[in-house]
Structure formats: C-alpha cells, structure tokens
UniProtKB/TrEMBL annotation:
Keyword Transmembrane helix belongs to the record: no
Class of this enzyme: transferase
Occurrences of domain Aminotransferase class I/classII large (ranges): 57-365
Signal sequence, renumbered to the chain: none
Protein's name according to its UniProt entry: LL-diaminopimelate aminotransferase
Keyword hit for Transferase: yes
InterPro entries: Aminotransferase_I/II_large, AspAT/PAT-like, PyrdxlP-dep_Trfase, PyrdxlP-dep_Trfase_major, PyrdxlP-dep_Trfase_small
Superkingdom, taxonomy of origin: Bacteria
Keywords associated with the record: Aminotransferase, Pyridoxal phosphate, Transferase
Organism name: Pseudomonas fluorescens
SUPFAM superfamilies: PLP-dependent transferases
Gene Ontology molecular function: L,L-diaminopimelate aminotransferase activity; pyridoxal phosphate binding
Gene name of the record: dapL_2
Amino acid sequence: MKRSPDHKNKNLTELEVFGLSAQYNLADGHSYISAKTHYQPVLSALPELWNHAAETTVPQMEKEFKDTFAEYFGLDGLRQHECFSICPTASNSIDIVGAWARAMKYRVGLVEPTFDNLAQLLRRREVELEPIPESSINDTQALKTLIQEKQLNAVFLVNPNNPTGLVINQSLMTEIIDLCKQLDVVLILDTSFRFCHRTHVDEYALLTEKELSFIILEDSGKQWPTLDTKASLLSYSADIAPLIRNIYEEIYLCSSNLSLKLISAFIEHTISLGGVSYIHALVMKNAQTVREQLANTLVSVEEVDPDSTMTIMWLNIEKTGMTDLELIDYLAQYDVAALPGRYFYWNSHHVAGHDRLRIALMKPDEQFAFSISRLRHALEVLEVELGEARTPCLEGA
C-alpha cells in the first residue's frame, strides 16, 4: 500500500520529505540531473579536489568559491564585493537574516506567494512580517504605498520568484533599489534561482553604486547535482556587516573546504559545457516533455515570465474539481509526489492557491519522462472516474 503524504505541519518541506520516498518524485526543486552523464570529469577528479581542499586555507577557498560563482554568472559587482559569508544551505542564510532582523527590531515585507519556509524561518526568529503581493512588484507606486502604510524597515523579494517565475529585470530592479534608497529601507534578495534568468542582472553592482543597505543570498543546490552538498553565498552591505557576521560566527566556524571545491568544480565544468545556456537547454527539454504529456489533461501549465527559464512549473488544476491537497493525496496513490499551491501563500493559504500544484524539472535524466508519464496516467484515470460519476445510472432494460 502506498504511503499517504502527511499534512500535520501544513508546510511544503513536509511534502518534499514525502517525495524523497516516492518513486515518481516531482516535489522538491533540488537538482538531481545525472552527474555521471553531465559531470563525469568532476566525479573522476574527486581525489584531486580533496587534495586541493586540504591544502587551501578556509578564507582563500571561500574567496575562490565566490569568484568562481561570480565568473559563472558574470557578476562583476559580486567579484569586487568583500562582505560575505557562506552557509551550508539557503535556509541557514535565511535563518541568519531572521536573527539579524529580529535584533534590529525590523518589520519585514515578504513577497507572496513564495516558498513558505522563508516566512517560517523568519517567524521562528520572531520577525514581524507583512505580505507584499507579487503584483505590487511591477508597480513601484503600489510598492511605495505599501512600504509606507506598513512602516516596513526591509523588503524581502525572491528573483526569479518561486513558484511563479516572476523576474525582476535590470530596469525594474533599478527602480526598486531607487525606491528603497528614497524610503531608507533595506533590500533583501533571495536569488536561489538566479540561473533561471534569461537576461543578465547584476544586483550587486546596482546596490553598491546606489549605496543601499542590502542582503543577497544565493544557492547552489537548485542547479548542480551534488547530492545535496550545497553552499549558500550570503552577501551584505558594509554598514550591516558587523552584526550579520557576528550572528554567523555564533552558529558556524566556517564552510567546508571540500564542499566549496566540489561545487566550484561543477561550476567550472558547466562553463566548459557552455555555461548557463547548457542548463537552460536541459530545463527547456524537460519543460517541453511536461507540456506535451499534460496536453489535453485535466491540468494546464501556467505560462511564466518570458525572461525566465524556471526549473519548476506551476499547474492549474481547476478542471479536476479537487483542491490541491485532495489532488496531492490522489496522486500519492500512484506514487507521484508534487507540491500543493496553498502553502506558497504563506499569509493567506486558507483562501489562496487551492487550485494550483507545483512540479520540479531537475530530476534524474533516466527517470523524469517516466514520472511525467505516470502523472499523466493518474490524471487520465481521474478523468474517467469523474466522467463515470457524472453519468446517471440506468435502471431496468
């Protein structure tokens, strides 16, 4: 008998944990593409990577990692930036942001929808949160009004946003930075899906030029298949660096040199394959598989911002007649795991997102097509069941 998802904690990570034991796991957004297929030279070089990590000082390895990351994304502003720390995961970086915001007694505006653990971690640190509707990001006047009415001290945005794929491009980012400077508000950016940008945005250069107080957190785990060996680059402006670094050192001594060298090797090999465009090609191939397989089913794929190539897809499930949680439980009978839409609406999940699911694309090369085929099969069976339920029974002859 298939195990059913657990909903007792009412959050997304709980359902991602369920997905780890599902045969057709489309839940979490981490990268599980085949390292043997795409990164065999890195795997073969593990002894050399170990030796380099063992012979390099921690500060030097951290700088090497930052510079390699900056080179890959063309972030000259990051390459020149000196105030940074490196956490094991993006969640650890968010937790440090929460501890800092609480120490400053800041009221923080957080975009909605977005992955719910951002709000959970900040609330765990007792940070006062206010939702920023995603629609207001493209309307700086509306954003200005919200910041003033809610008396926000910091604005926390995700670029591109998870799950919708909304992109803050260079022009809009400049407007938002100017607004935050005008209102004396700290800008916090989660750029974990940076590699999904189709156009270049160097927030570090823009923020430094405008002399705005900022925090940016990055994540390696969404792109490189390192079996969840990850690194989250946490950068911050010089004016707020002392407190953030102090909080970091209360929790961590340093990053793992081996982790940083391994991830750097994955990045360098990706550059040799063609850089971000190589990853985009893999994503677009899987996205096309989803569109073809789910065509003419009870769900439809939501179109994303044309400036993004997201490794996740937002599905409209209205035609199923089920809520997101009901459909999640139904799919579990077929050993398919996905994420419900409602928990991305961290402040309004009781009313919003019930007609959406999220699936992830960076899954094992040899497994992904089977998982989408299994999802399609489950939806086809559901459509038959719904049709039979609507057909009146005929008595007699």
